[in-house]
Each structure stands twice: as structure tokens, then as C-alpha cells.
Amino acid sequence: MRASATYVVALDGISGSGKSSTARQVARELGILHLDTGAMYRSVTWAAIQAGLKPDQADAVTQVAKAQDFGFDAHNHLIVNGHVPGPEIRSAEVSAGVSDYCQIPGVRQALVAAQRYLGTLKSCVVEGRDIGTVVFPQARFKFFMTARPEVRAKRRHGEMLAMGLSADFQEILKNLSERDEKDQGRALSPLIKAADAVEIDTSDLTFDEQVAKIASLVRQALNSDSR
């Protein structure tokens, strides 16, 4: 594989491990796109809730997912139906419901198809929960991020406060634990570490350290291609 060829960096991990912020910065460091699949699932969940739909209304929620138009704007930001998703997709209501809405087979099929298409446009960092195992199983670079529950809850609490959203630390910690259980126990595309993924425990790493670790491993491999 030549260094100039298109490639995917699959960045999976548990909820609150810092995937989105890390993926965004790694993409900047490498000069490639960032595909935030979490925002895609959250956007569908938000749209379904706004439409008054419950997770057990599988067919209707699937239609909501199929109606979402995903792409990139001129600044390479993910857009949904022509707009960059706002802070509403990070609300406690969406965080509590996203696993239930997005475990619907039709929803996952629609979004996996969209992710695969977007991932073929240019080299990109793609983050989520099943990127290295289901969406891009042949991705050259695979990483799996994890962190202790209390550390993840503290980070999510800070993020929500920074966005001006109400946040309760204990509620967030409970939500994360429940999300882990749902994601790891679901029958369709469960959250598991790909056999060939490099595990990154971010509990005791600074943000810059975890970004540098991932970017360095990718650069080393790409540099070896050009020799």
C-alpha cells in the first residue's frame, strides 16, 4: 500500500472514552477527514424523539434514519440534512436513548451504508463502536479506546457543562454504565475490541498524549510505505 493511498483509521471504544474529540484531533494531525458516527446515531435518535417515536416503533424509526442526508461541508465537518448537528444531540435525553433507538437493525443498516460511503470519499478517521469489526473490518489502522467509568463520567460532565447543558455527575455515571451494558450485550454489532486493534487506555493519559500516541503509530506505518 502506498503512503498516498486512501486509508481508514478505525477508532472504537466505550461511551465517554473520548473517541470523538480524539478522532477529531487525530484527523487534524494527519491532515485527513473525521467521520463522527456517534453524531450520526445521535442525530437519528434526536429526530425520532422529536417525531414522538419510541424505540419499539422500529419501522418508523428506520424510516427516520433513511431520511437523514449525511455529508461533509466545505470545512470537512459532518452535516446532517445540510446542517452541522447542534448541542441538542448531546443532551441527557439523547444519551439515555441512543442505544435503544440505534440497536434497531434497519437503523444500523442504513447508517452503516452511509458510513461506508462517506469513508470511501477520502482518507478519514472513523470513530464509533463497531467500526473496526463491522463497518470497516478491513481498515488498516484500528484502535480501541477505554477508560475507567469515573474518569469517563467526569469528562462527560465537563463537556455538558461547557455546552450549557444541565448535568448531574451521578446520573451521567449511571447512564454510562447502562450504556456499556447495552452496547456490549446487544445481539447486532455488539461493542467488542477487534482482534487486531491497538487498545488505548486513556484513564491516565492527557488528551495530547492519547492523540500523539495514535497519530504516531499511523505515521510510522505510512512512512514505512514510502521507503
Overview of this structure, please?
The protein is α/β, with parallel strands linked by helices and 227 residues long. The chain has a single domain (29-218), classed as Rossmann fold, CATH 3.40.50. Helix content is 52%, strand content 14%. It has nine helices and seven strands; from the N terminus they run E-H-E-H-H-E-E-H-H-E-H-E-H-H-E-H. The strands form two sheets. The chain has a five-stranded parallel sheet, with helices on both faces. It has a two-stranded antiparallel sheet with strand order 3-4. A hairpin with a 5-residue loop joins strand 3 (70-72) and strand 4 (78-80). Helix 7 (149-162) packs across helix 8 (169-185). The longest helix has 19 residues, at 207-225. The protein starts with 7 loop residues before the first strand and ends with a helix. The model has no long low-confidence stretch (mean pLDDT 89).
Keywords for this structure?
single chain, 227 residues, alpha/beta, Rossmann fold, 5-stranded parallel β-sheet, two-stranded antiparallel sheet, 9 helices, 52% helix
